[in-house]
Write a structure and sequence with these properties.
By secondary structure, the chain is an alpha/beta fold. The protein has eleven helices and ten strands.
Length: 328
């Protein structure tokens, strides 16, 4: 994953008069008729998908491009259970969106479900995020070097907790094992359906090491309940002290992205209206506050360009999973 996003400034962009005019123009044009935007979130409350959807919905209302928003959480199988429900229940609905990302693409590659993102309508990519590896504050493990040494002695003794099988979380653990000379198929990985569930397992000592998006774990790290061992970016995140895996001699760098898809069967104009509404939302103060507080790196991309990006991601993730033995 390219580290170019790390060089982007975390400073909030000021809300400009021009941006306000654009947002108002979009909201009042006849192209948009977003009364109640319905978000499907393919994960339990508290995780990255959930935070993305709720912050985007708030910003859409703030921008005036949606009157109201509602959210439905449907966790399981890397978001593909929620995706199946979304596709079947939202056909041709111009006000429906589902939060997606690399996690869902990985689940599709590994599980090969009958309904995939090809059955929905690509709208926009939003941002990149990097993962953090954490342990409970009481853990004797002080660095990722300690974890790797434990892994080499007995792969099964390290119980890793993270997102669904095939997720960025899972791939990153397999990559660490491979870099350490350990068979990735021997890792002891426990998947969870959402960040809240994973956090509870880490705090309860039910896993040895946990990994998730930095935004999902930072409250526990900052409060002293968890200790951060490493991030998956090329270097430390801006303003943060936690070293990267690479800075600790582990040659692994991997990022996550999130975006939104629309319902199947919507028209080209309806798709553009959703994309315009999402872009307007990303110019709002609340959205930029969320980017900064969650260490999300903005990377907005819409339409056909986004669709091509997802196709490329599917191939990249499939190759990564084959390389570490997660799929044949």
């Amino acid at each position: 994953m390219s580290a170019t996003f790390l060089s982007q400034s975390r400073l909030r962009k000021p809300f400009s008069y021009a941006g306000a005019v654009i947002a108002v123009a979009i909201a009042t044009s006849g192209a948009l008729a977003l009364d109640n935007v319905k978000f499907m979130i393919g994960a339990n409350p508290g995780g990255g998908f959930d935070q993305t959807g709720r912050n985007l919905g708030k910003a859409m209302v703030e921008a005036g491009v949606a009157k109201t928003t509602q959210f439905e959480n449907k966790g399981g199988a890397g978001g593909t259970i929620g995706l199946a429900q979304f596709v079947n229940a939202s056909k041709a609905d111009p006000n429906a969106m589902i939060v997606t990302g690399a996690v869902m693409v990985g689940a599709i590659v590994q599980n090969k479900p009958p309904i995939t993102l090809a059955n929905a309508t690509p709208v926009a990519r939003l941002f990149y995020e990097y993962n953090v590896f954490v342990v409970p504050a009481s853990s004797p493990l002080k660095s990722m070097k300690d974890v790797v040494e434990m892994l080499k002695k007995d792969p099964g003794s390290v119980k890793w907790g993270g997102g669904s099988r095939g997720s960025v979380d899972h791939i990153s653990v397999a990559m660490i094992a491979k870099d350490a000379g350990v068979d990735p198929t021997k890792i002891n990985y426990v998947p969870f359906q959402g960040g809240g569930e994973a956090s509870a397992a880490i705090l309860g000592g039910h896993v040895t090491v946990g990994t998730s998006g930095y935004s999902e774990m930072q409250q526990f790290v900052k409060s002293g309940k968890m200790r951060a061992l490493a991030v998956t970016s090329a270097t430390k995140l801006p303003g943060e002290a936690t070293p990267s895996l690479k800075e600790q001699g582990i040659n692994v760098e991997i990022g996550n992205w999130r975006g939104v898809y629309g319902a199947p069967g919507i028209t080209a104009d309806q798709r553009k209206a959703l994309a315009d509404a999402v872009v307007a939302a990303t110019k709002q103060k609340s959205w930029n506050d969320a980017l900064q507080s969650n260490d999300w790196f903005p990377a907005v991309m819409t339409g056909d360009e986004f669709a091509k990006f997802v196709d490329t991601e599917h191939k990249r993730i499939e190759e990564s999973m084959k390389a570490v033995g997660l799929v044949k």
